[in-house]
Write a sequence for this structure.
């Protein structure tokens, strides 16, 4: 990072609105939602304040500087780095929820001890105003002894300029950083922890205040790796005994002292906790022990049904658009290799994928909606018991649900799970949740081979088949969790504590932004891979050219692709797959959706005309030249879909698992178990189907 | 998370099959498992 650009760090409790503030400051569009712990990594954005460029750092939310989970540990590691003068920020913006000041300021009081100027951003002042809470900012600043207090409403982008000005005056060193006051320590306690703070000061050149704060934390927190040094741990032990003798249980010492101080500054309002809030009334229904789960199932069914029914309209437009575009290009270019490559390779291959964009966007939209309203947090609570029974955690629900869109952000979001075993098991099974990259494969097969019938009057058979595929992946994920959690060693930390954010009306702007970002990612990232593979594949499928053979599709028959495909055919024949599907399986190791574009490219090459053909029709009409039977039957389609439910076919996922688990072992485990599962499940479906008399 | 000595709490709801309970602390709703809640001493009031 550029050393000359000053750094400003955003720190605050989960759901205090750090990311919303980050977006408002930097103009970047990062995901904001109503689920504690959406930000799970550090992010940096730039902002121009007058003539100065400043880097803004967004960190995961934490309740204190004693980490409970991976995402909180990221914050604490970052702060420890600053203590060693590495990438130390010029100022910290402590983001607090104004409607819950007393508790939010606890973290602020810890930040004040770091010796870095602290600006308090009183966020959600709009909500505080509604509750007629009035906060005197200059009074608060004086009492806390911080560099400044600014009222903002990040979601409405109010007060952002005031905050920028406050940062500017710290940059200009207009604000002296001297009147910071240490949380007053009663003398006996200060004496008790003095050996610890003295030891810390001898180790590192830190000032007294920071040494005392660190000593206080070392004595209070039970498992803190940073203080595990031989000489120090005996000192800490002695200090704890002294403190306990004084009548302060050491484990709550830091909290007792800090809250004692904070209660004088912002007296906790004696709120009437008997009146029911709006959210509570909604929870009476939505998290009702009996009704709640049914509502959830209803919501899921609605989402999957709409993915299939609503999306068909824009899908038809895209389909027609692509074939018109292909025809147009085909008319412009002279016949030859260039035309074949453009029409068959690029437009045929990439176009086949583009068609599924509407379905993916609808799915993302609903997931974002569930998160933004606050429903997802309730889901974690409702599912905790069931999840624990299969070896997972209530907080595993969000990663698994995100897995329906993409396993990668799902795996990242497991960082909020505070126990390693539950987190690892969640990581291992998340790729079994049918992600949006499988959707094109399912949709293609279902569209071509499942009749458009109604069952029980209101369910479409096609939608139902899709739900079945999702159900298969989900059920397997849950069952395998039991085995994985038996296998992986347990540790002690098995707790579930979660704040339930108030329900709020979804911010359409932020949801649509997410949908847009995802869609763009799909088109650009996936598009690049698909484009490259489509072009390579077109070459492999079209060369070497054979002009002497007079059969209908000589190019494909003698091509390299055909040779590769025939090589793997014996392995996949028992699953009902022919060599063309074999090529698709090979190419989809880069990413699953490539399967569809592979098929499209192959069938376009095979087709003699210069038009872009419909893949669905091509699949339906493909006949084996020897036996004269159809290559694809509903049974083959089912076997193929089941294969895709389980198969490990996403390089990016393995890279993320490698990073999150910090070992090659777990990605390897994942590849082996998923591939094995895919093969055997498909084998059972196809051979079982044949035995039962289906063809 | 807002649990501190002498803090007033109200039990809002228990989930089915001994799932996590929900409690209200001031304006916040916190959900926690039985085992975690058992670590907190409470005095009944009213």
């Amino acid at each position: 990072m550029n050393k000359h650009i000053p750094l400003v760090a955003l720190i605050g409790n989960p759901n205090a609105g750090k990311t919303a503030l980050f977006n408002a400051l930097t103009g970047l569009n990062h995901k904001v939602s109503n689920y504690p712990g959406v930000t799970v990594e550090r992010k940096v954005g730039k902002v121009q304040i007058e003539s100065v460029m400043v880097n803004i750092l967004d960190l995961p939310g934490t309740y204190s500087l004693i980490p409970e989970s991976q995402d909180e540990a990221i914050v604490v590691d970052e702060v420890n780095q600053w203590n060693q003068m590495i990438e130390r920020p010029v100022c910290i913006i402590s983001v607090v929820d104004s409607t819950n000041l007393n508790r939010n300021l606890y973290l602020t009081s810890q930040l004040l001890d770091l010796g870095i100027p602290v600006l308090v951003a009183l966020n959600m002042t709009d909500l505080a105003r509604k509750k007629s809470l009035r906060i005197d900012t200059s009074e608060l600043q004086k009492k806390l002894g911080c560099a400044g207090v600014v009222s903002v409403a990040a979601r409405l982008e109010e007060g952002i300029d005031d905050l920028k000005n406050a940062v500017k005056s710290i940059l200009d060193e207009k604000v002296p950083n001297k009147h910071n006051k240490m949380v007053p320590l009663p003398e006996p306690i200060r004496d008790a922890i003095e050996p610890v703070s003295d030891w810390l000061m001898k180790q590192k050149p830190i000032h007294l205040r920071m040494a005392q704060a660190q000593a206080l934390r070392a004595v209070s927190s039970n498992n803190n790796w940073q203080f595990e040094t031989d000489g120090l741990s005996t000192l800490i032990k002695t200090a704890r005994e002294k403190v306990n003798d004084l009548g302060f249980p050491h484990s709550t010492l830091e909290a007792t002292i800090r809250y004692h101080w904070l209660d004088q500054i912002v007296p906790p309002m004696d709120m009437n906790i008997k009146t029911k809030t709006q959210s509570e009334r909604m929870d009476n229904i939505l998290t009702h022990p009996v009704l709640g789960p049914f509502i959830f199932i209803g919501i899921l069914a609605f989402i999957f049904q709409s993915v299939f029914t609503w999306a068909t309209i824009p899908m038809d437009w895209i389909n027609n658009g692509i074939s018109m575009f292909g025809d147009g290009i085909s008319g412009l270019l002279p016949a030859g290799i260039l035309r074949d490559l453009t029409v068959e390779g690029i437009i045929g291959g990439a176009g086949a994928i583009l068609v599924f964009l509407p379905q993916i966007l609808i799915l993302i939209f609903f997931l974002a909606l569930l998160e933004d309203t606050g429903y997802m947090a309730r889901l974690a609570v409702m599912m905790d018991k069931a999840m624990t029974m299969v070896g997972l955690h209530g907080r595993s629900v969000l990663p698994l649900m995100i897995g329906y869109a993409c396993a990668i952000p799902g795996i990242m979001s497991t960082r909020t799970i505070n126990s390693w075993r539950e987190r690892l098991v969640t990581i291992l099974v998340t790729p079994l949740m049918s992600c949006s990259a499988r959707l094109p494969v399912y949709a293609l097969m279902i569209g071509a081979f499942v009749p458009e019938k109604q069952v029980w009057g209101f369910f479409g058979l096609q939608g139902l088949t899709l739900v079945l595929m999702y159900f298969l992946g989900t059920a397997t994920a849950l069952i395998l969790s039991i085995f994985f959690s038996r296998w992986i060693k347990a540790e002690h930390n098995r707790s579930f504590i979660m704040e339930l954010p108030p329900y709020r009306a979804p911010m359409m702007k932020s949801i649509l932004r997410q949908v847009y970002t995802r869609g763009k990612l799909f088109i650009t990232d996936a598009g690049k891979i698909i484009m490259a593979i489509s072009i390579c594949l077109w070459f492999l499928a079209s060369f070497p050219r054979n002009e002497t053979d007079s059969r209908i599709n000589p190019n494909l028959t003698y091509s390299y692709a055909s040779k590769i495909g025939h090589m793997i055919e014996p392995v996949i024949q028992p699953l009902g797959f022919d060599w063309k599907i074999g090529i698709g399986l090979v190419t989809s190791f880069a990413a699953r959706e490539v399967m569809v574009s592979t098929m499209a490219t192959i069938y376009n090459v095979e087709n003699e005309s210069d038009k872009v053909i419909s893949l669905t029709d091509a699949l339906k009409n493909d006949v084996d030249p020897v036996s004269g039977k159809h290559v694809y039957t509903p049974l083959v389609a089912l076997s193929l879909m089941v294969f895709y439910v389980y198969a490990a076919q996403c390089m990016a996922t393995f890279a993320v698992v490698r990073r999150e688990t910090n070992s090659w072992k777990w990605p390897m485990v994942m590849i082996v178990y998923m591939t094995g599962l895919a093969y055997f499940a498909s084998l059972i479906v196809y051979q079982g189907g044949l035995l039962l008399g289906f063809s | 998370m807002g649990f501190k000595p002498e803090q007033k709490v109200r039990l809002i709801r228990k989930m089915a099959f001994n799932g996590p309970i929900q409690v209200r602390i001031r304006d916040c709703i916190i959900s926690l498992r039985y085992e975690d809640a058992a670590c907190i001493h409470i005095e009944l009031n009213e």
